[in-house]
Design a protein that fits this description.
By secondary structure, the protein is of the alpha+beta class. The protein contains 23 helices and eleven strands. Strands 1, 2, 3, 5, 6 and 9 form a six-stranded mixed beta sheet that branches. Strands 4-8-7 form a three-stranded antiparallel beta sheet, with no helix packed on it. Strands 10-11 form a two-stranded antiparallel ribbon. The chain is globular, with a radius of gyration of 27 Å.
Length: 669
């Protein structure tokens, strides 16, 4: 294997007009955070026990799971080692997120870890919904891995509509116990990560019955397996759901109950409570129980959408700088495919989208932490806005990420189709996010409910929250003349969002006035509502990008490149939704040429910095796990090396020749 840098990549890096390390530090949140991240990566990725002797795609389904469990055990032992020597600069929860949902975790177990839900949902649910006493009983055991838990909410017949869950949990005051049952086939819990064979405890979401009345869904801690033998406990039906499109190391499972009894104190009672005699004490707000789901949606945007897009962009951009193809001018050397405008149009918007959602995710993460603190004080004023933005950013971000990753795969031609490119696996992991933790269409409609209420509030003259304030003045912006600058384009996104929201509002009200029940009117307007939510989300992302550029202190060279990326994502999204902008913004047909021209100019301006931009994502080769995207650019040598890892290449003649092929050839058919 060569260790020299490919000459084309060398030249690309020499052309870069900004300081790559400055952008890396900015993305990480400062020089110290970059240093801390690199230190953590070196600590974990240097351990030979966490490396694969045989690529995972050559293992059987059973072997993949067993391999993932072995590596997970090593991984979490190393977390303890790290915490013992760490100075605290890394941040404990940031480390868990990096290892479970971020880039570092994907480098160690690229098909998902069966321990993920234990840290991402089981522990946060107990911390968020358990009393101090319950946290004392459970969190320490969970963090020290004395028990492994999962979060069992989704059922075979019910997913996003959690009020329709069928699992029952009935209180028996004579024994001070709850009795869990799965009354139907569709009430089987289905999908929880790690549930199949990894976890021995679960937070189970079930319909609470006490004193003859149903009080809706509540969370309960349930032991599933014996702590010594790991055998399922009496009344527990449990197993793995089977092979999937991706994430086959996650060990998703099914679960059903047959008169399973648990102590009363196993109901998480920070909010609602059941007293010894069965008396039910209602929570101050049923919204408090949705904290875990909001947290996971925030984490998906922050750790998965941004990182999967960035990873795909690094692989495809570096490959495009090395790959040469076709004879553009007779007698000249084949050009780098990165010089083709069509290739730039595939890749540069992916880079811009990754950075745009990174800025939006920063806002979301900040607000999530603020709202969580306010909830502790009983202040729920900003919770609806957080919920609405978490829903739409998760929905739009994951959809864009899936499209972006597959675009990068297509940009790599046939080599991108190979599993060892890591683009198929990255796509499988990305598209999974479009359905878990809330199916995207349902989430768009949840945000739409918030937007309809906000528009009603705007009509009533009420004060609006930060993300919907534009509903007070979006119509005034249409009087302005079109100029292809960031301020004008950002205004156009606001005009489109406001107009689509207004259109939905009046469509629903018109149907209701004509005698259509509100629920039917909502359903008949639902396509428009998803469009309006998508527009609202994109307006937010664009404005978050511009606001970030206005407030950060960066070199003029870097600020210029980031501004060019902001311009690119604006014109890219405008041209995709051109009909909406012509109909609802101050963009006129005669202005479209200026938008197309800016798109082409943006690609040309960004071309010298393409490799520098993806280098600034600072992803180690182990994280990229792709011969197409390695830092040295030695694509073809690495592809041959990967091919030779195939078990079929361990012997010159496969046994199938003697068993089947030779007799067939001799059969004189």
């Amino acid at each position: 294997m060569k260790i020299t840098i490919n000459e084309d990549l060398k030249r690309e890096r020499q052309k870069c007009t900004f300081n790559v390390e400055e952008l890396t530090n900015f993305i990480d949140g400062g020089i110290q955070k970059t240093e801390a991240r690199r230190k953590v990566e070196s600590f974990f990725l240097s351990d030979p026990r966490l490396k694969d002797d045989v690529p995972m795609e050559y293992l059987s389904h059973k072997e993949r799971y067993e391999h993932a469990v072995r590596k997970s055990c090593v991984l979490f032992k190393k977390i303890t080692e790290w915490q013992e020597q760490d100075d605290g600069s890394g941040g404990s929860m940031d480390l868990y997120q990096a290892l479970l949902g971020g880039l570092l975790g994907s480098a160690i177990i690229n098909d998902g870890t069966p321990f993920a839900v234990h840290y991402v949902m089981f522990i946060p649910t107990i911390m968020g919904q358990g009393t101090m006493e319950q946290q004392g009983d459970w969190v320490g055991r969970a963090f020290s891995n004395q028990i492994i838990g999962t979060y069992a909410q989704t059922e075979l017949g019910h997913g996003t509509f959690i009020r329709g869950l069928e699992t029952t949990c009935m209180y028996d005051p004579s024994t001070e116990e709850f009795v869990l049952n799965s009354p139907t086939l569709t009430s089987y819990k289905w999908w929880p990560g790690g549930l199949g064979h990894t976890c021995n405890y679960a937070v189970v979401v079930a319909q609470l019955y006490t004193q003859g009345k149903c009080h809706g869904i509540h969370p309960f801690i349930v032991q599933l397996r014996d702590e010594e033998t790991w055998m399922p406990l009496p009344g527990i039906k449990i197993g793995e759901i089977g092979s999937k499109f991706g994430m086959n190391s996650t060990n998703n499972g099914y679960l059903a109950f047959d008169n399973v009894r648990i102590p009363r104190i196993n109901m998480l009672m920070k909010n609602a409570k059941v007293l010894k005699d069965g008396t039910y004490q209602k929570s101050l707000s049923d919204k408090l129980t949705y904290g875990t789901m909001i947290f996971v949606r925030v984490a998906i945007v922050r750790d998965l959408v941004v990182n999967y897009l960035a990873k795909a962009a690094v692989i495809a951009t570096r490959y495009s700088a090395v790959r040469r193809q076709s004879e553009r001018k007779p007698g000249e050397r084949e050009p780098q495919i990165l010089d083709y405008q069509t290739q730039q149009y595939k890749l540069f918007p992916v880079i811009a989208t990754s950075i745009a959602f990174r800025f939006a995710a920063t806002w979301l993460w900040t607000v999530y932490n603020e709202v969580t603190s306010q909830l502790e004080q009983g202040d729920m004023e900003r919770l609806p806005e957080l919920h609405a933005m978490a829903c739409c950013l998760k929905a739009v971000g994951t959809a864009d990420a899936a499209v972006g990753v597959t675009t990068c795969r297509l940009a790599c031609g046939g080599h991108g189709y190979m599993n060892n490119s890591n683009l198929p696996n990255t796509y499988a992991m990305t598209t999974a996010t479009e359905t878990y933790e809330g199916e995207n269409t349902v989430l768009l409609l949840q945000t739409a409910r918030y937007l309809m209420k906000a528009f009603q509030d705007a009509k009533s003259g009420m004060e609006l929250t930060e993300t919907v304030k534009y509903l007070n003045n979006f119509k005034n912006l249409r009087r302005l003349n079109w100029t292809t600058d960031l301020k004008c384009m950002a205004n156009a996104f606001t005009q489109v969002a406001g107009s689509l929201i207004e259109k939905c509002y009046f469509s629903i009200n018109l149907l209701v006035k004509s005698g259509v029940p509100h629920e039917d009117a909502w359903n008949q307007t639902s396509i428009q509502l998803t469009r309006a939510t998508d527009a609202h989300c994109r307006a937010f992302v664009i404005n978050a990008f511009i606001a970030t550029l206005q407030k950060v202190q960066l070199s003029s060279e870097l600020k210029l490149v980031l501004t060019q990326l902001a311009e690119l994502i604006c014109v890219h999204w405008i041209l995709i939704k051109l009909g909406d902008f012509l109909q609802f913004s101050n963009l006129k047909p005669s202005d479209v040429h200026s938008v197309q021209t800016l798109l082409e100019d943006s690609l040309k301006r960004l071309r010298p910095n393409a490799v520098g931009l993806v280098d600034s994502f600072d992803m180690r080769d182990e994280i990229l796990s792709s011969p197409l995207g390695a830092y040295d650019g030695n694509v073809y040598e690495r592809l041959i090396n990967e091919a030779n890892k195939s078990p079929l290449n361990k012997e010159p003649v496969n046994e199938s020749f003697h068993k089947y092929l030779k007799p067939f050839l001799k059969s004189n058919l």
